[in-house]
Amino acid sequence: MSSLPKTMKAVLIEKTGGTDVLQYRTDVPVPEPKEGEVLVKNEYIGINYIDTYFRSGIYPPPTFPYTLGREGAGTIASTGPNTPSDLQPGTRVVYMGTSAYAEYVAVPSTYTIPLPAAISTKTAAASLLQALTALTLIRDAYRVQAGDWILVTAAAGGVGLWLCQLLKAVGARVIGTASTAEKRGLAREHGAEVVLGYEEGFVEEVMRVTGGEGCHAVFDSVGRATFDDCLRVVRRLGTMCSFGNASGPVEGFALARLSAKNIKLLRPTLFNYIATRAELQSAANELWTFIEKDGLNVRIHNVYPLSEVVRATQDIQSRKTTGKLLLEP
Ligand code: NDP
User: Fold this and answer.
1) Where in the chain is the domain with CATH 3.90.180.10?
2) How far away, in angstroms, is 42 Cα from ligand 1 center?
3) Model pTM?
4) Given a cut of 80, is residue 50 above it in pLDDT?
5) Which of 31, 70, 279, 301, CA to CA, is 20 to 30 A from 24?
6) H/E/C letters for each residue in 182-224?
7) 160 CA to centre of ligand 1 in angstroms
8) Fold assignment, 146-267
């Protein structure tokens, strides 16, 4: 640890609330990696919508002060006791963990993997959490088959664009929803065959393009505002997968509603699909192959200096962004 600085830049919150609770600081102690942890010097930090839930209090932070941020990529600066042999100081890595909005982060080795030479730290930080969410949804939440009709809401967002691309790559027929014509154009460019807005409602058109049957599966991350309409367009024996709350959580759902079409309903989270290092490594290997061999596009909306975290957060919440937002310490 001797060559490391004692303090660093980081973003803290001391209470939950609006973007005004985000504090950019330059005097935060550099953490020491504990048993099984590595200390990563971040090059890029991924912004995810979940960060806004921890800031607003939809998901309560476990402690205060709390540093937001669930993923990043960079170089290992030091290791704690009992870390795997493939994680050594100097190794380029990508990780998922907590407290990523900082220059240095101590993360569990379970969620840290070395990067292949062909994958840059920028690409890795811009893809891991959102792309693995999309990949596990289409593999594990509902095993998508070629020819399936699949509805994706927020199709031009971070996870949304990955879903469009991966679904197309496995031969599914994608219907995407997004709030603006520009976003709908982007969803189409990334693989959506049909793109729809929200203003006139999407139910009728989804039923029409699917020949009155509805979709084999719906992947909905908007939550409260779209859940009911999504349920309407799932076909008999289909799957409704609700995996986010961008418009607020879905509450008070009566289970009996599923019996009208014997629908399967899931509310999965990525971390339960990649609970072990082997599961994470295997999913990441599959993702790197998709990126390299299928030429998937890692769309980066913008890279913001860490000091401009408020602007970045306002941008993702204001629905202006498409693809991935990154912070650079
Ligand atoms: P996005 O880039 O998709 O941003 C959120 C998008 O949601 C916006 O661009 C917007 O698209 C749409 N949206 C709809 N209603 C609202 C609203 N009221 N306020 C703000 N945005 C709204 O973010 P991410 O890719 O990071 O995450 C997408 C979703 O996936 C989130 O809900 C997130 O929580 C969830 N997620 C879940 C995971 C899991 O493990 N379950 C893991 C990762 C993400 P538009 O303007 O087109 O409506």
Assistant:
1) 7-128+274-328
2) 24
3) 0.96
4) yes
5) 301
6) HHHHHHHHCCCCEEECCCCCCHHHHHHHCCCCCEEEEEECCCC
7) 8
8) Rossmann fold (3.40.50)
